[in-house]
Amino acid sequence: MIQRHIENAINQAMSDTPVVLLNGARQTGKTTLAQALADRTGAQYFTLDDAATLGLVAGDPNGFIRNLKSPVVIDEIQKAQELFPAIKLAVDRDRQPGRFLLTGSANILTLPRLSESLAGRMEIIPLFPLSAGELAGHAERFVPLLFEGTLGQSRLRYDKADLTATLVCGGYPEALQRSSNARRSAWFASYISTLLQRDVRDLAQVDGLHALPNLLKLLAARGSGLLNMSDVGRDAGLPHSTLTRYLALLETVFLVHRLPAWSHNLGQRLVKAPKVHLIDSGLACHLLGADAVRLKEDRPLLGRLLESYVVAELRKQISWAAPGMGLYHYRTATGSEVDVVLEDRSGAICGVEVKASATVGPSDFAALKALQEQLPKKFRTGVVLYSGDRVVPFGDRLWLMPVHALWTC
Q: pTM for the whole thing?
């Protein structure tokens, strides 16, 4: 079993919180991790993927919860939403920490009433596909070093991985075990079909479910670009109301996420266009029919997928290294753009630019310098990640670093 960096955060949450929810896409390793924690703690383990268990729960959710002895692990909790009020009653009677560890393959914050049922009683911890550091057996320190201002002085471990192969493989454990591109593609096809046909149907009555796979492909093609709902709706042949609902469903099952715009004005962050990214580069490559050979030949496509990959890796690192940190993109009216802006709770910010090229010049730092000049007191570090292998200073608190610095520092 690959060591998951989020495990420490789960243990800490269970030490002082009655209910902990491990939330993330299917096939990211939630069940494996939950079973390992159950074995270690002696907790009772139930999965609602089992039809018999699900039937018992549906028949008498209060009786099911009332007869359990803590601690308890319940896998795929979104399949029995009626359990949340029952768990609430049990926790209100006994608020002992670590009573329930739940896992879910749907974002319960977007599901009706569920986010309110356990408010103040539950901590939600995200689990993403495997990070590059987890695959390498190394705990990444990129985000903390970025804010400490010491990233440029860190010593990078040697990494010989082919960047294009890394993007094509992605981070889903099952896909990584496939021995060839064809077998990995077959897994992704089955994964998407199962997710859209089963989980989305469980969550909502969707008319015209056949439109969702096409919409997912359109979003993959627009990965790392600004989300223009009018353009997407026109190309997908969907009215705005339907597109909004379908996009929310794709986000609910963790296939797609939006990267909001950063602005001085907190209100403007809500109205400026977000960028759209798929959760996993391997999934995006599958939807686009892109293998490593094509990525090496199609530099614009490589650049877009690499940007999405970096965003995904930063989201993973933030989940265990800096929960609550904000992740944004920055774009001015004149077109100056920083691919990723990280903002901590104190308001300090760092910027990350992503370049697929092995050659980078001063112009590639222009947007980071503009952001630094605009916020001299809040700006900590700016980094341009590129496909080369050298670490080069580019002025005050600005660095050129290899992409693999994300997981080798």
A: 0.94
